[in-house]
């Protein structure tokens, strides 16, 4: 414990992945300087890594990547450039993949004993698992927005969680919504969680509430993608801007081949369900989760192109969904695509739920989680709000970084 | 930072106030032993204090109050006995009030330098402010369910919060609901909170949703008190048990003089609003908050007995409330008794709110908080669930105790 006259804590950070969320995180770190200074905390960025390149200051003990450079990184990544384009100034050491991963471990080994280090994974890659595991073994902290390492084998999971207080991963479920932090609080106070039901995909939440109004499934899926519903930032724009962005997104779907099946397969929700189930102590893997895909196997990416799926496949699914919606409605219920974890089940798929519950009333792209426990037994604990977007996700990561600093002195 | 082979942390705790919440906390501590052991944590109770007596082990460095004794304390407090009745075994040092408060400071001074100490305030007294302030100055941690010290003068507040990470007080607002923890996460990640609206009284939440159905205010207030709605545990019982408990509570209201005006005055909600507003950086005191009382001054406790208020006063308020309910309803709205904090206001009272929002849909005694911020701008972040009850409140306290242990080594 520090003395009453608190000295400034200098916490070194190393960021893996500086696309959308990572880039936003760098901006948050810079703009939070004064807030953190009041709490006697300085976040010292000593490494940034994208899929190709790791940049570190010439001496990780004494020098940091300064705010001007962090903002330069943000600009470059916003334009879609690689970190490699910023590596020629002579101000940094540059390591290329695959050497970069080993170098991160070296830095962790160097800094752990003196100042500690927090490694942040904002990538979407499963390749980081090995590095993160080593970093934890070296007594450093890890903060993750990346779901992959936490949803791989139980062996890797248990290595990562060997010192649970050193790992934080709020933004792997529901972006910055305080889901993991709240569940951890319940578990550490001995509350017994009986059941978690959650709508954890903005896209599927939007789709299920729209088909409830009688719109055809195929049409709703197309507008969900076009609206960029997984990026709530767009909703802020003027109608004209939304129109232009929509046109651009349609263009993107065609050109860059955004595949709506990524969401419709349910696999992203399944990873979140796995993370929640493991938090509750379940020793399971992704394959143990019953996942309902919203398209049949014969319409999968290996047999049908995106264009063909959108044009020929998707409309064939309308009737089936419509019938299910009507059947649910005749029972006074609605359909929601949820993860459902209780003592017997860990499932992901469409469930018929009462209209008159937070999940049943859900409209649009918000995430909702209902947690039933010994303490919340009559009515569940409900956490609801935007569950996607770089800003919110990066804020969740930064809150985790701030929380783990209590472990450093 | 501890080495990879984590050693068991022995965190000494001292509990002030062992009535309802404090007693439940002792039970939780005992029943969470195995959960905490897995996290390499042992909570070592080195002092328990009620309004009259402080009991400590013969040597606070090496001995703790063991689980058998903690459960004995729970039994005694459940029966309404004082700690004084347990002080004759010769196993403990006994200090009587007012000596006890000074002794707590002595213990904090002794333990702070070697092992650290967390002092927990589950009392409902403003007398603890001085002790808690000293304890913080001595580098110990403080966890509070007690609202009073946090809602007194700005000077005391700033002394208490001098090292913000060492003070946790989740259970001062919405019992164990993750309100304070979530707000702190938002603030530390630089999210800008624009507006908080919350129904933070189980009793007033129940009252406002019942009058919405056309029931007379006076009748609803009586049944709220009789149903013991501020103690959601009762809702678990069989109808027969509820009937008996209701009869008992009616008896209690008459005998022990539970005063419904404690809730109706809004002062309890005002303290919670003050705690939230101060968290957002407002330098205000209780008197700066505009508080709407649901009874006029001439029906206050100084001029009207409880019996007379229930029989003669309360029914006179029915018509006014009914008219307001009808007016709101004709606008398509409902009335809720809320705290409202935004850039201009910090108010507590009845607000007309849209039906189709989490607050507008609220039924029964749950608490609901809607937080609007930069990250949650289209739709608010919503946290909803039981906001009262010893079990939930004590769970919130224990989660705080668990969280602050990261500061100790």
From TrEMBL, chains A, B:
One annotated GO biological process: aspartate family amino acid biosynthetic process
SUPFAM superfamilies in the cross-refs: Glyceraldehyde-3-phosphate dehydrogenase-like, C-terminal domain, NAD(P)-binding Rossmann-fold domains
A Pfam family per the record: Homoserine_dh
UniProt GO MF annotations: homoserine dehydrogenase activity
EC number from the UniProt entry: 1.1.1.3
Source species, domain of life: Eukaryota
Coiled coil: none
Protein name (record): homoserine dehydrogenase
